[in-house]
């Protein structure tokens, strides 16, 4: 499903074609996050004028409201959003990070069987398992489905990090099994099936990242993503960790740098071999009146360093 068109002789940057049920995507490309199946602040005609290659929708938030069953009844999230471009659904893994691990237990808990969340809408409690995450995403009908993972902060202790990595690997096994069951149950053939993505965890520890990547490859997925935030506690981009993680992923699989969204970080990551990017930055910064622009023909990164193409 991944066709490599061109590979740089200087860097790891490449151009590929990725086949999805809603069309062929040419990488590298960036997607804005349509968290609740809408890009905030933009009309449908404005979205169409942008010529976006794809968008990301949020499994957890759509499950809470308006509900995956309602979206399925409408014919899937594409019809619900009135769009024909490829859509990717995240798994709920980032909510494990933001609501459970960062919420200090007030918004949820996690064990080896499931993640338990408190709804930010009405305070009700909900459980998300690997199987349930896959079922919700299949109900949404997205073109790329992501395995539920345990996304820990980069400053987690070694014990918690090892636990998160092992849980991520075991959940990936469950997700793939559930995914294959859903394909049979829904009578979706190989040609029209969505792509399945596993997420590599390991925080800032390169050895742990490589271990997680190799274990996930043994299970086998269409693509692999970079899990957890790509910056440290001071906001510095984790160049070495991002590069090592990209190298650990086979060339015949696409590489998804989740959460990478600033122009300079995208360019850095493309040079490392990452193919796909998403972030809330465009819509969030736009709502706050901020604008990104290029001051010269060369892209200047953090601390004035010129990034070479």
Please give the structural blueprint.
Elements: E1 2-7, E2 14-20, E3 23-27, E4 29-32, H1 44-50, E5 55-57, H2 59-64, H3 68-73, H4 77-81, E6 87-89, H5 93-101, E7 108-110, E8 115-118, E9 125-128, H6 130-140, E10 144-146, H7 158-185, E11 195-200, H8 206-219, E12 223-226, H9 239-248, E13 254-258, H10 263-272, E14 276-279, H11 281-287, E15 299-300, E16 306-307
Parallel strand pairs: 4-14, 5-6, 6-10, 10-11, 11-12, 12-13, 13-14
Antiparallel strand pairs: 1-2, 2-3, 7-8, 8-9, 15-16
Helix pairs in contact: 6-7, 7-8, 8-9
Q: Outline of this structure?
A:
Helices cover 37% and strands 21% of the residues.
| CATH class wording | Alpha Beta
Helix content: 25-40%
Structural class: alpha/beta
Largest sheet: number of strands, sense, barrel closure: 8 strands, parallel
User: Given the C-alpha coordinates, what overall shape results?
Assistant: globular
- Output mean pLDDT: 92
CATH architecture annotation: Alpha-Beta Barrel
**How much strand content do the residues show?**
15-25%
**Low-confidence spans: pLDDT under 50, at least 5 residues?**
300-304
C-alpha Rg, in Å?
19 Å
What is the total domain count? 1
CATH-defined topology: TIM Barrel
Q: What is the subunit arrangement here?
A: single chain
Rounded to the nearest angstrom, the distance between the terminal CA atoms is 27 Å
Q: Name the strands of the widest sheet in spatial order.
A: 4-14-13-12-11-10-6-5
Let me know the number of strands. 16
Number of helices: 11
CATH superfamily: Queuine tRNA-ribosyltransferase-like
Order of helices and strands: EEEEHEHHHEHEEEHEHEHEHEHEHEE
């Amino acid at each position: 499903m991944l066709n490599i068109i061109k590979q740089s002789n200087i860097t790891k940057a490449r151009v590929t074609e990725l086949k999805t049920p809603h069309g062929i995507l040419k990488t590298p490309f960036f997607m804005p996050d349509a968290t609740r199946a809408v890009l905030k602040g933009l009309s449908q005609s404005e979205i169409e004028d942008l010529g976006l290659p794809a968008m990301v929708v949020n499994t957890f938030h759509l499950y809470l409201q308006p509900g995956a069953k309602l979206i399925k009844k409408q014919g899937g999230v594409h019809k619900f959003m009135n769009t024909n471009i490829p859509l990717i659904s995240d798994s709920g893994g980032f909510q494990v990070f933001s609501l459970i691990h960062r919420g200090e237990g007030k918004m949820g808990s996690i064990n080896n069987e499931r993640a338990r969340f408190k709804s930010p809408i009405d305070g009700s409690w909900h459980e998300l398992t690997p199987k349930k995450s896959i079922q919700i995403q299949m109900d949404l009908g997205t073109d790329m489905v992501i395995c539920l993972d345990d996304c820990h902060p980069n400053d987690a202790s070694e014990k918690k990090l090892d636990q998160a990595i092992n849980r991520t690997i075991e959940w990936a096994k469950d997700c793939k099994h559930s995914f294959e069951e859903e394909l049979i149950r829904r009578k979706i053939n190989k040609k029209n099936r969505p792509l399945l993505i596993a997420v590599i965890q390991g925080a800032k520890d390169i050895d742990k990242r490589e271990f997680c990547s190799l274990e996930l490859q043994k299970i086998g997925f269409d693509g692999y993503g970079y899990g957890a935030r790509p910056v440290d506690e001071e906001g510095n981009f984790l160049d070495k960790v991002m590069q090592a993680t990209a190298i650990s992923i086979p060339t015949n699989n696409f590489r998804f740098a989740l959460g990478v969204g600033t122009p300079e970080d995208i360019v850095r990551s493309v040079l490392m071999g990452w193919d796909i990017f998403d972030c809330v930055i465009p819509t969030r910064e736009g709502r706050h009146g901020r604008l990104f622009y290029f001051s010269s023909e060369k892209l200047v990164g953090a601390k004035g360093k010129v990034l070479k193409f």
